């Protein structure tokens, strides 16, 4: 519903009495639904509260202190970038800070519904104001004009005039992005008009369950990072993901502000195999095969999912902003949809043989493990047998991107490389500790072993890597891992005797915590490799430690186990050789690290077209220069465009190559904790 005249943004009148916020009617909000709590939500709220208080790993006091956290998170959920409410609104809401605990416990969420209702009114007014800004083209050469794209920690706008300026920046940012993508002003007007009108229409389709889910997740995430409420629809989707039999791109998505963001990729799926999609990437457009891109900024998550899903073998193209910064240059990733099944995600091995250099002709085995699925250890056994037949001198276990899976399989996999002993300790909420052990007394592979991890390696991956490190059985290489050391349980809220017209959702909450056999937790810290590879992302800016309300790192008593021989001096020597190589081979990463350090605190992006074009050109020139330098090192011809990359370059994996170099160093310097007498 585009307007050719400016819509006046009037302040709402709020009645300062508990549970009642009266809204002044405003032009353009008459189509918004009046949302009220439904009957099943009373029971759901009480059952969620009961589950968390009785069974959560973390002791919980539903008191005023927690109420303030719930309130703050609820406000953040509905106005993450501080560009909808004013400081005056927040001041008015503050009277309810200590009321959310009582509301949730009683199952009466009327105050949350009223705040949410006002948020919908404010959002509608903001989008209508955005539409008025499309009446004439922007001046893209206005000096020093910038867009603050990250306002999470910014002060609330004092009044509507300040909000108008924030939205002017945002609309101009949207328009400039489309202009840089080759769109002329009439097309930009058309696309942004559709985007903002769709946002208004979406607001009119808001349901009572949307509000309930928001407030319940504000409660859950105020307790702990991996605790959540799932609406009936999301609970159904969760079960589908657990069964892992659906057709699509193999990525788990979440909605953040107006963006659809990659939460994780399914190992072995199209997104994973593309090597071009990573967690925190944002999807801004979707196209079916040769059709035009559909702008999906501001869409509901389920709408984006429906657009991306499709039959096996069909093509979908995603227009993406890479990484956590909105200032990145959008890229297009083309994927072929496929059937995603757990059994298709099996471990695979290959024989690594250098074509030149000092290790020419020497074979290593590489076993890539995408996840810890049922019977993983049996598949790895077969791969080891195949590698032994091929005469490999050592094995690299590649756990990059492996987000975990079966606890049992992490123990069984560890058992292939040690004779017997504890693998991981698990402590429940009552303080009881149990050991997961390998008990068969057999070693399936005794040769040199290295394990390659990255910042996406989590949970079961960390259990295996930590066990190999604690036993001194393998050398751990790569980036510091994610740091998820907790166990979750999923429980439905519905009961057989329920007579509600609509179904109840479910909850997922933490019930236990993992500990290494040396007593330290993998929580927060993850596994720190014996040899750290350079990384563009600082671990302090990534992983579990960045999750709000994540459980802390702590330790318990060391388990009883015997290590392989001491390796401190060997690791020191290997590290020195590694450092000599990376100065030459990883110089690009070091350059990117410095660039990242400079830019990571900057939360603005230029709205001056020439500056943005210059930045885009510099990035393209730098990438082309680096590409041609790699081609020269590989003995291949240079290219004039990044679109002309030879297939050989696409297969280059510098981190795996360095892991192989270190494994060869192990063979040269001396056996690393292998076939050595035990302490």
The count of helical stretches stands at: 19
Radius of gyration: 27 Å
Total number of distinct structural domains? 3
What is the average of the pLDDT values? Answer: 85
| Name given to the CATH homologous superfamily of the largest domain | 2-enoyl-CoA Hydratase, Chain A, domain 1
Low-confidence runs: 1-27, 242-246, 672-679
The CATH topology of the largest domain, please? 2-enoyl-CoA Hydratase, Chain A, domain 1
The share of residues in helices is 25-40%
CATH architecture of the largest domain: Alpha-Beta Complex
Largest sheet: 6 strands, antiparallel
Number of strands: 21
Strand residue percentage: 15-25%
Overview of the structural elements:
This protein has helices at about 40-55, 65-80, 85-95, 100-105, 110-130, 160-180, 185-205, 210-225, 230-245, 270-275, 300-310, 375-390, 405-415, 460-470, 570-585, 585-600, 610-635, 645-650, 655-670, and strands at about 145-150, 230, 245-250, 250-255, 260-265, 280-290, 295, 315-320, 330-335, 340, 350, 365-370, 395-400, 420-430, 435-440, 450-455, 475-480, 485-490, 505-515, 530, 605. With about 675 residues, it is of the alpha+beta class. The chain folds into three domains: about 40-225, no CATH class; about 245-340, PDZ domain (Pdz3 Domain, Roll); about 345-495 and about 510-565, 2-enoyl-CoA Hydratase, Chain A, domain 1 (Alpha-Beta Complex).
Summarize the structure.
This protein is α+β, with helices and mostly antiparallel strands and 679 residues long. The chain contains 19 helices and 21 strands. It has three domains: 39-223, no CATH class; 246-340, PDZ domain (Pdz3 Domain, Roll), CATH 2.30.42.10; 343-494 and 510-565, 2-enoyl-CoA Hydratase, Chain A, domain 1, CATH 3.90.226.
């Amino acid at each position: 519903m585009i307007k050719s005249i400016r819509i006046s943004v009037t302040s709402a009148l709020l009645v300062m009495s508990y549970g009642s916020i009266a809204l002044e009617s405003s032009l353009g909000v008459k189509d918004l639904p009046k949302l009220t709590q439904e009957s099943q939500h009373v029971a759901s709220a009480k059952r969620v509260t009961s589950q968390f208080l009785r069974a959560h790993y973390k002791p919980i006091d539903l008191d005023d202190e927690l109420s303030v956290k719930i309130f703050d998170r609820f406000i953040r959920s509905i106005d993450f970038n501080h560009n909808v409410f004013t400081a005056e609104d927040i001041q008015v809401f503050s009277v309810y800070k200590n009321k959310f605990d009582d509301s949730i416990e009683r199952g009466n969420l009327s105050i949350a519904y009223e705040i949410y209702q006002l948020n919908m009114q404010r959002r509608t007014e903001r989008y209508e104001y955005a539409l008025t800004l499309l009446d004439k083209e922007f001046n893209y050469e206005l000096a020093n004009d910038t867009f603050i794209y990250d306002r999470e920690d910014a002060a609330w706008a004092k009044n509507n005039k300040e909000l108008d300026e924030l939205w002017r920046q945002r609309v101009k940012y949207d328009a400039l992005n489309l202009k840089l993508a080759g769109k002329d002003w009439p097309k930009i007007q058309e696309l942004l008009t559709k985007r903002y009108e769709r946002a208004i229409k979406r607001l009119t389709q808001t349901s009572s369950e949307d509000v309930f889910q928001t407030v319940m997740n504000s409660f859950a995430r105020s307790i702990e990072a991996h605790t959540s409420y799932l609406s009936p629809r999301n609970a159904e989707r969760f079960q589908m993901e657990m069964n892992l039999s659906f057709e699509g791109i193999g990525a788990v998505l979440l909605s953040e502000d107006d963006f659809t963001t990659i939460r994780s990729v399914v190992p072995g799926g199209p997104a994973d195999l593309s090597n071009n999609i990573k967690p925190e990437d944002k999807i801004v457009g979707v196209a079916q095969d040769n059709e035009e891109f559909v702008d999906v900024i501001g869409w509901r998550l389920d709408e984006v999912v429906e657009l991306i899903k499709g039959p096996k073998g069909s093509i979908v193209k995603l227009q993406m902003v890479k990484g956590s910064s909105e200032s990145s240059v959008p890229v297009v990733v083309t994927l072929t949809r496929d059937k995603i099944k757990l059994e298709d995600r099996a471990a695979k091995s290959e024989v690594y043989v250098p074509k030149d250099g000092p290790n020419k002709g020497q074979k290593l085995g590489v076993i890539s493990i995408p996840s810890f699925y049922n019977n993983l250890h049996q598949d790895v056994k077969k791969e080891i047998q195949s590698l032994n037949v091929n005469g490999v001198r050592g094995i690299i276990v590649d756990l990059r991107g492996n987000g975990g899976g079966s606890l049992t399989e992490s123990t069984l996999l560890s058992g292939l490389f040690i004779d017997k002993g504890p693998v991981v300790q698990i402590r429940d909420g009552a303080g009881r500790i149990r050991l997961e052990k390998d008990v068969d007394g057999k070693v399936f592979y005794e040769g040199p072993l290295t394990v390659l991890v990255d910042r996406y390696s989590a949970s079961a991956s960390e259990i295996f890597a930590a066990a190999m490190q604690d036993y001194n059985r393998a050398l751990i290489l790569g980036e510091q891992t994610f740091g998820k050391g907790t166990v979750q349980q999923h429980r439905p809220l519905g009961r057989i005797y329920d007579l509600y017209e609509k179904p109840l959702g479910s909850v997922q909450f933490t019930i236990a915590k993992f500990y290494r056999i040396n007593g330290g937790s993998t929580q927060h810290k993850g596994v720190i490799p014996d040899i750290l590879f350079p990384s563009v992302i600082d671990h302090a800016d990534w992983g579990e430690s960045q999750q709000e309300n994540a459980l802390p790192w702590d330790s318990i008593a060391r388990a009883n186990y015997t290590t392989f021989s001491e390796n401190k001096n060997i690791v020191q020597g290997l590290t020195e050789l590694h450092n000599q190589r990376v100065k030459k081979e990883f110089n690009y990463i070091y350059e990117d690290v410095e660039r990242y350090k400079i830019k990571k605190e900057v939360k603005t992006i230029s709205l001056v077209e020439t500056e943005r074009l210059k930045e885009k050109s510099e990035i393209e020139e730098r990438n082309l220069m680096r590409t041609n330098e790699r081609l020269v090192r590989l003995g291949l011809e240079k290219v004039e465009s990044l679109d002309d990359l030879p297939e050989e370059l696409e297969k280059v994996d510098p981190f795996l190559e360095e892991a192989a170099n270190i494994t060869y160093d192990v063979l040269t310097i001396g056996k690393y904790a292998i076939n050595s007498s035990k302490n």
